[in-house]
Specification:
Elements lengths: L5 E6 L3 H8 L5 E5 L9 H12 L8 E5 L6 H13 L5 E4 L5 H10 L7 E6 L2 H5 L1 H5 L5 E6 L1 H8 L5 H18 L2 E4 L8 H13 L4 E4 L5 H8 L3 H16 L5 E3 L2 E3 L1 H17 L3
Parallel strand pairs: 1-2, 1-8, 2-3, 3-4, 4-5, 5-6, 6-7, 7-8
Antiparallel strand pairs: 9-10
Helix pairs in contact: 2-3, 9-10, 11-12
């Protein structure tokens, strides 16, 4: 998995905000054509968003565009605009995905642009139920994103850790089984760095590989939360060395049993460190 620890949203209707977001240091900057843009502004924002996706990204930053749902006429207009513009790279984010077929539609509609990656937002109970199939539906799928706010609205419950625990666990299992990344919902209390850090640490502890954000000031906090500590890095190197010295058999490290699943987790930690060094 790539080290996509952070994704920063910016409304596609505001080019000046987009360009500021592009310099904020996020791993992914996403121009939003969906929730952040009202119906009357969709057409104008579409031009800006598609142009942003086709622009040259800053070093260490990928560009993304969240279109409207492919189950809507507006979403189909978004895809037609992408076809016409022909961006050579970037990530197309699909909101409120509720079936593996939607990834197939995107693959076919963007067939002439094979270098565009995909991202699927899981935001409804229906989407959560089929998340394992969605996560495996396309070789272009780079990561999933949990839309916690919409999910809780559908359930009619408050946005709390307890209400989201089962959904987060199911998504973590689906994403890791498919070998794709998984980003958590943004912290709505974005002016509270302590709460931003708490939520980011919780997401990492639950198996998420990153977190989305709605404000540039949160990016460094998110990166810090998803960065392995010095102790974790040293442990990973020690465990892998012990395992390799055993010839790939069961080994011990500091009195602890080391088996293949543990080694896999340690290799993921070191891979994340290598990925971060490129950003």
């Amino acid at each position: 998995m790539s080290a996509r620890r952070s994704l920063l949203f910016a409304p596609a209707s505001r080019p000046e905000v987009l360009e500021k977001a592009a310099r904020a240091g996020a791993d992914v900057v996403c121009a939003d054509l969906e929730d952040a843009v009202g119906p009357a502004d969709k057409d104008a924002a579409r031009l800006t968003g598609v142009a942003f996706l086709g622009g040259a990204p800053a070093a260490g930053t990928e560009r993304a565009l969240r279109i409207n749902s492919l189950r809507t006429p507006t979403g189909l207009k978004d895809v037609l605009a992408l076809q016409a513009a022909g961006p050579l790279s970037g990530i197309v984010c699909l909101p409120k995905v509720e079936s593996a077929e939607e990834l197939g539609w995107a693959d076919e509609l963007l067939a002439t642009q094979p270098n565009l990656l995909l991202c699927a937002f899981i935001e409804t109970p229906r989407g959560l139920e089929v998340a394992p199939a969605i996560a495996r539906a396309s070789k272009r799928l780079a990561f999933l994103v949990f839309g916690a706010v919409d999910f809780c609205a559908e359930l009619g419950v408050a946005l709390t850790d307890e209400a989201l625990a089962w959904a987060r666990g199911r998504l973590a299992s689906a994403a890791h089984l498919a070998g794709v990344g998984l980003l958590d919902a943004p912290c709505l209390e974005f002016r509270d760095p302590i709460e931003v850090a708490r939520q980011a640490r919780l997401a990492r502890a639950l198996g998420f590989t990153g977190k989305t954000s709605i404000h540039p000031s949160n990016i460094s906090t998110i990166h810090e939360a998803f960065a392995p500590s010095v102790e974790e890095i040293e442990q990973a190197r020690g465990i892998i060395a012990a395992f390799e010295a055993s010839g790939g058999a069961v080994a011990t490290w500091q009195g602890k049993l080391v088996e293949v699943p543990v080694v896999k987790r340690m290799k993921r930690i070191l891979a994340l460190v290598d990925g971060q060094s490129a950003h």
